[in-house]
Amino acid sequence: MALTGKLSVEVTLQTPAAKYFNIFITQFHKFQNICERIHEAKMHEGDNWHVPHSVKNWTLIVDGKPIKLKEKIEAIDKENKSVTYNFFDGDISKNYKVFKVFLQVFEKSDGGASIKFTIEYEKISENVEAPYGFLEFFEKSAKDIDSHLLKA
Questions:
Q1: How many structural domains are present in the chain?
Q2: CATH number, residue 62
Q3: Which of 26, 131, 151, 152 gets the highest tally of CB atoms within 10 A of its CB?
Q4: CB-CB neighbours of 27 under 10 Å
């Protein structure tokens, strides 16, 4: 059984791609008020939520359990509407040596969009399961954000 792996999920959205992507690069700090599975988000290091290498503390609900972790943005590509995140420390480090999340927002011909989340991970041992609960977390959170933006 491999220690490294990749999982992906793609979610169809009604919000236009540019508007949806914009919330990730300008209003990331508001996710705790938008997504029911995000219970807390605080700046840990740095003073800007939307730049690479600022570190944030998060409390997420994954598989019905609170998960504490740190996150930092590694890269933002505005042209391709993509962001790369590194999740580390806290509860996530109990199971994974590496946990990176890549997201990309795609325009659709109907004026909506889709978002694809890809998780690249390295487990600390073969006894650790692949992070399927995080795929569900990202899928449901993407829908929460879409609903919020449609009301805005």
A1: 1
A2: 3.30.530.20
A3: 131
A4: 16
